[in-house]
Amino acid sequence: MTRLRVSADIGGTFTDIVLLDGEGRLRTKKVSSTVGDYATAIVQGLAEALAEGGLDAGAVEEVLHATTVASNAILEQKGARTGLITTRGFRDVLEIRTLRMPRLYDLAWEKPPALVERRLRHEVTERIAVDGTVRVPLDEAEVEAAVKALLAEGVQAIAVCLIHAYANPAHEKRVGEIVRALAPEVTLCLSHEVLPERKEYERTSTTVINAYVRPIFEQYLARLTAELGKGGVSAPVLIMQSNGGLMGAAEATERPVHAVESGPAAGVIGARALARQAGLPRVISFDMGGTTAKAGVIEAYEVSRASEYAVGAGIMVGSRLLTGAGYLLKVPAIDLAEVGAGGGSIIRVDAGGALQVGPESAGAHPGPVCYGRGNMQPTVTDANLVLGYLNPHALVGGALAVDAAKARAALEERVAKPLGLPVEQAAWGAHAIAASNMIRAIKAVTSERGRDPRSFALVAFGGNGPLFAAGMAASLGMRRIIVPPSAGVFSAVGLLCSDVEVHLTRTWRRPTQGLDAGALQAACAMLEAEARARLAADGFPPERQDITRSAQLRYQGQSFELTVPVPAEGDVATRLEEAFGAEHERTYGHRAGAGEPVEVVALQVLGRGVPERPRMPERLMAGTEGPPQPPRAAYFGAAAGWIETPVLRRSDFAALRPGPCIIEEYDATCLVPPGARAVLDAFGNIVIEL
Amino acid sequence: MSDRSYDPIAFELFKNALFSIADEMALTVHRTTYSAVLKDNMDYSTAFCDGQGRLVAQGLTLPSHLGSIPEALAAVIRRYGDDMADGDIFALNDPFEGGMHLPDIFVFRPIFVDGQRLAFAATICHHTDVGGRVAGSNASDSTEIYQEGLRIAPMRIYERGRPNETFFLFLERNVRVPDKVMGDLRAQLAACTIAERAFRELVGQHGAERTRFFMEELLDYSERLTRAALADLPDGEWSFEDNIDDDGVDLGKPIPLRVKVTKRGDGITVDWTGSSPQVKGAINSTFSFTRSASYCAIRSVLPAGIPNNEGYFRAIEVIAPPGTITHAVLPAACAARGLTGFRMVDTMFGALALMLPDRVGAAGDGGNTGVSIGGYDATRRPFIYVDFTCGAWGGRPWADGLDGNSHMFANMACPSIEVTEAEQPIEILCYELLPGRAGAGRFRGGVPFAREYRMLEDSGVLQVRSDRRVYPPFGLYGGQPGAPSRNAILRDGAWAELPSKFCVEFRKGDVFRHELAGGGGWGDPRERDPALVLRDLRAGLLGAEAARRDYGVVLTPCGSAVDGAATAAARAAMPRRSAAIVRGAEDAA
């Protein structure tokens, strides 16, 4: 019996299911997401995919899952009723946030409401000092009163975050014992366990989010497992973390805070697998769907991670400088830059006479003008249709009919006429401007970090990514674009490439001058022991545990750290300083003199469970291809004009072909512009060379 | 638009690229800076100017720097003219020759392409200390500029890539925390270098001629957008007056700010004539800062998407007579002029609320309180803690004022308490919202917060600049003013009240408490949804007595629901409140 690995990626509109068999054959299924009860779509979609392939549910050996359950609970304020216990004087840390707002000059700004309302935030008398000493002892009677008051309010979860608890958790532990004794059934999250790091707002916010989503996540996983079981699938369910690693269901239930941004992470992990397979150490992943586009970076075959992010901030923020949107989570996450540009982005001419694309979006409903669902404002997809890039009759393998004439009329009326341009030039301009907006996302993860995008290859996926990739790559001076098989469901494919990972971070602040290397290694060893224990619990024996140690450093007085590996031997302090200085120079273009004091701020351990056999086959084979399509006229700017362009299938690229050509697939359309060349590589990827 | 003689698409692409360079500069400063005032308060800005010194693109940074760059760069050009070369870098901070106040050091790097000066990269950073009599160089009780620190006239600090050692040594020896100041200056220089590299690439793509043309067009484009938006606003003339309590020197002497906003067609004039003569205390504003405040307020009632550059300024005329607090002249002290800027923005919002009653709200807490704690530890190492804080907005015509949100004029973040305690000899005892202080209204003002700081070193100096003690944040259209601010010190077991601006010795164990003023309310409090009154009550932000007195909301005996009948009766007995501007109890009816 062939072994099957299954992945499921829930998105706002579609749930993507991918089945991979032992021979490397991919079967994909796109079903509508069942909002409110996401498990149903997965179970149904999986059943259909199995039936279509004549496959047995019992052959499924693992189910890998990226889910929006946690982020939706936060964004829709539908998490568990949660109480917070905190140090006297700091009841409002969660609500005051950092004071900053993500938009300048906006009198109508509203802060996202606190996930724990003020009446459910209780203070207790106690205080730990910055060095961990007890300045004011814990008043246990107040703790009891607070817990009872919260129970009377019917809370399902209690978060505890006391000032400096990372330095000395004694008071938090005692509060935890009292909560356990009085309310054993309530979900309890202690800040020093969720995030043993300095900065009270970040720690409070992260702990509260964990408590807020945990009951929801627990129920969801239980239901999903049960429903899968009914369908004959008894394989373990592994959950994608925001950091790109998988975690077991038990761990996910304990720390759902790590699974909040799991879908976007999966795509980058897929791009990393592709990079490793193709021998490309430096890759930019570019994922463009209907409303947003996301860019991530892979260097030395490894993803880059951010230490914090905000849920729901995404496209509200025009620049990475503007923080304060969404809900802050200080957990490692794959570093993604997101811009509000997608197929649904609206094209208009502003009062100053300039052509603008987005950030307003027609979304999936009503969607672009060509969908004929009532939207009259032209979108990026409408422009692509006018340009001849998209199939003029239907998208998604024929499932979605489009009206090209309507799209053209809207673009003519609202954009071309006011600008005094022919309609195809207006559409061409909109396409170019959408690309330039998305280039900002790529710059955010490259040139803004001192990386030159020209030394990277671009891996493009998502429904619209392969349509824009070549044009964007050209303006960034990039030479090579790779479009993987099943590009439109590539995040689900990425899940199949991921490993079980444990990421641990601990505040450990010491100057590098006079650093006690033994103490540093001992602190790392403690983290490592915990990481190994968790991996063992997920079924990885010691010989299949891979551990890396790193440290976050900065010049004393700075507040942003850079991460460098911890050397196993030698003069640890000097080697850390040198690695940090080099990274600072690379990232920011300058470094301080040799005498400048450097400090270690935190230590990190990443534990990886090494799978028994390679997770991915040598070569992926996507499903069957549709019938051949006739060529059509496509427009490539004033100089090239309209060109009769062949419409091809992936298999047509066995030999190198010159652009222009269009590759139409079930889940995505890819554009090879004039002057470029494309060929299929040994792994089934289309490789476009500029 | 059909008469356009250039490619609108190439223009849009150019504009995106240029603004992304300005933002990239800002990120470089943000990530590599040393001092809290830069990394947390983000008290810095980055920009791009054309070869003539006109501001073309300002990064998304501090609104209070909006109008400052053109003036500063003009001062450099006045002094050096064409005597500039590739690799030169210029700096200044003198408020009377292009600067704003001494802590703000401007850095400009001219960019040459084929021997022609095509642009300037610009950064401004508020430095932690530039010397002078009080640590932090921002005391409000200095009475002349000479007390405030090192004055840097427009000066060449790099000549063809070589640092001017005289300048750097001079600076280093005259500031209290040279490691921070030099580190931050390094971040400014790095940002300019990054900008230069990126701009050269852009010129490589477009050519020098088209780059020059597009920069010019970018100004015209902003002007067109601004004028189109202004044309949509009503014509007329609106005046407003607000007061700063005092300047911290002439205690109890109010300082009036008067503005007249005149809108005709597609232009607008902001006239500060009639405001107080310049004062002894250090809250005098430069003309450039007054322009920033005026631009910021108008920007807030225009649609988003207008690029920040001189084209936007062209549609706005700002008048401020020299010798007044809105246009100080030598030897005025101006270190703490931030306060005046915030109050000018509030005054502007007052006038704009009369112009656009459904779009602009009541006054917030008054703009940020500055707290500086400085001194030397037992080993004579200096420490300086500088915190600027604000957080309560005024009630708005459609919603309550925000609680715990920065002022429009300076989108600042608060430093973490745990980080502050790790880096400074200070313990923060509380940081919490204060009940009963928000101005009542159909939409109440923002709830202010309190902070307490305990000194852990033997001794130091505590310097505070606050306001809104005598003149609380005004309410609008029947909304009530917010509660005034408060300062107090706990010493030897007893609390003592302090004035709004002061400088005192801060001893080990002393606790300083600051309470922000509450935001002003908007609309008749009797019209407030009783459910919202109940919500605030149960959140502990409002007492039952105040709910009844200020809102006429009566609770059922169990206290968990609104008694509808009793509330209706109580409200019927309350006076109708509708005065357009409510500054104190006497205006309330």
Q: Explain this structure to me?
A:
Chain B: It comes from Neoroseomonas eburnea. Chain B: One of its GO terms (molecular function) is 5-oxoprolinase (ATP-hydrolyzing) activity. Chain B: This is Hydantoinase B/oxoprolinase family protein. Chain B: Residues 7-525 form the Hydantoinase B/oxoprolinase domain. Chain B: InterPro entries: Hydantoinase_B, Oxoprolinase-like. The complex is a heterodimer of chains A (690) and B (589). In chain A, strands 13, 14, 15, 20, 25, 26, 34, 37 and 38 form a nine-stranded mixed beta sheet that branches. Chain A has a six-stranded mixed beta sheet with strand order 3-2-1-4-11-12. A four-stranded parallel beta sheet of chain A has the order 6-5-9-10, with helices on both faces. Chain A is an alpha+beta fold. In chain A, β25 (457-461), α13 and β26 (480-483) form a beta-alpha-beta unit. Chain A is globular, with a radius of gyration of 26 Å. The mean pLDDT of chain A is 91. In chain A, α2 packs across α7, α4 (140-152) crosses α5 (170-182) and α10 (380-386) crosses α12. Chain A has four domains: 4-73 and 218-258, Nucleotidyltransferase, domain 5 (2-Layer Sandwich), CATH 3.30.420; 77-216, Rossmann fold; 262-340 and 435-495, ATPase, nucleotide binding domain (Nucleotidyltransferase, domain 5, 2-Layer Sandwich), CATH 3.30.420; 501-609, 2-Layer Sandwich (Dna Ligase, domain 1). Chain B is an alpha+beta fold and 589 residues long. Chain B folds into three domains: 8-224, no CATH class; 361-523, no CATH class; 527-581, no CATH class. In chain B, 30% of the residues lie in helices and 23% in strands. Chain B contains 13 helices and 22 strands. In chain B, the strands form five sheets. Chain B has a seven-stranded antiparallel beta sheet with strand order 2-1-5-4-3-6-7, sandwiched between helices. Chain B has a five-stranded antiparallel beta sheet with strand order 14-15-21-18-19. In chain B, β9 (255-264) and β10 (267-271) form a beta hairpin. The longest helix of chain B has 29 residues, at 178-206. Chains A and B meet through α3, α7, α12 and α16 of A and α1, α5, α6, α10 and β14 of B.
